Structure formats: structure tokens, C-alpha cells
Amino acid sequence: MGIVWSSQARTDLRAIRDFIGRDSEHYASLQTERLVARVERASKMPSRGHPVHEFMDSGLREVHEGSYRIIYRVQADEFQVVTLVHMKQRIRRRRLR
Q1: pTM of the prediction?
Q2: What dotted CATH number matches 2-96?
Q3: For the chain, which has fewer Cβ within 10 Å, the N-terminal or C-terminal residue?
Q4: Per-residue pLDDT, 72
Q5: Per-residue pLDDT tens for 41-93?
Q6: CA-to-CA distance for 63 and 82, rounded, in angstroms?
Q7: How far is CA 40 from CA 1, 53, 55, 75, in A?
């Protein structure tokens, strides 16, 4: 299954890296690698993620890595990473496009 990162998800990943990187470049790289690895693992078994409770009817699913929620959907043979959100953040519908 191919992995497709939305522009929002790519922006989120950079923002996470930049935020953590203010304190530690090492930990910023480590967290980024963990998030990417988690996406790769989730793409192999996408049904293991659970529905996004804020948007139950949307077909969106999520897995967690550390303090982050990786929101995705599966369409045809694509694993689409929609957004990455810190657990303490509220998901805005506009991030899900």
C-alpha cells in the first residue's frame, strides 16, 4: 500500500520538528523519525488504528506516537496521512481536507 502525505501532514511534521528543535535538534530528529516509522507500520495494518472520535462518520482513523495523533484514511490502495496533531490540541475540520 502506498503512503501519501497530505500537504497539511507535511506542514505538521515540519512544525513538530521545528518546535522540538528549538530545544534540541537531536530530539527533533528522533521524534520525526518515530512519527515517520509509525506511519510506515500503520500503513501495513491500517485497520488497527481506531476511528477519530471527533469525526466518527468521516472514515478517518488514527494511531498514536508519543504525544501525537496521526490521522489517516485509506482509499483504494493508498494510505493517506491527513494530519498530525498533539494530543492536547483540538482537531479543526479545515485540517482534514
Answers
A1: 0.91
A2: 3.30.2310.20
A3: C
A4: 97
A5: 999 999 999 999 888 778 899 999 999 999 999 998 899 999 999 999 888 76
A6: 12
A7: 10, 22, 23, 16
The full set of domain ranges for the chain reads: 2-96
* Mode of pairing for the β-strands spanning 50-51 and 2-5: unpaired
Q: What is the model's pLDDT at position 85?
A: 95
- Quote the CA–CA distance of 28 and 45 in Å, as a whole number: 26
Q: What element of type H or E holds 82? A: strand 78-86
Sign of CA dihedral 83, 86, 91, 92: negative
The number of CA neighbours under 13 Å toward the Cβ of 3 is: 17
